[in-house]
Amino acid sequence: MKHLKLVLLISAVTAFAIACASTNNTPQTGNTNAVNTTTSNPNATPATATPADELAAARATYNAACIRCHKENGEGGVTDMGDGGTLKVPSFKSGHGLNHTDAQFARQIAKGGDGMPAFEKRLTPEQIGGLVRFIRQEFQAGLLKDGAANPPH
User: pTM of the entire structure?
Assistant: First the structure.
């Protein structure tokens, strides 16, 4: 458990560093009295995250919360739970993992079940949605019927 907390903390710090590095630091020209809206202006509109930023954040979340069981390649397999027990973790690349809708994936991540812990108290709904998009893009691209993100049942 301490290891998981440390990994989550490291991931959060990494995500924060990535977010800070991607802010707009373009110098102001013209009006020398202009205020730089990228620094501590509470009324400034937040920058819209790019797909690359969202993918990087989702990858960090996956690395912090999912990689231990689902592995780096998303293929799962038998995982040592550290308490003497093991868990057979399904692959995202085959079987029922390809038949889940986005909503079913999000619910499974949030609520857990079948040996998977619930993450609804550890991850925000945005992080869970990011994980679903990450799984679709990273592990299931080209494997879904007709490229559908929500295959029919």
Answer: 0.63
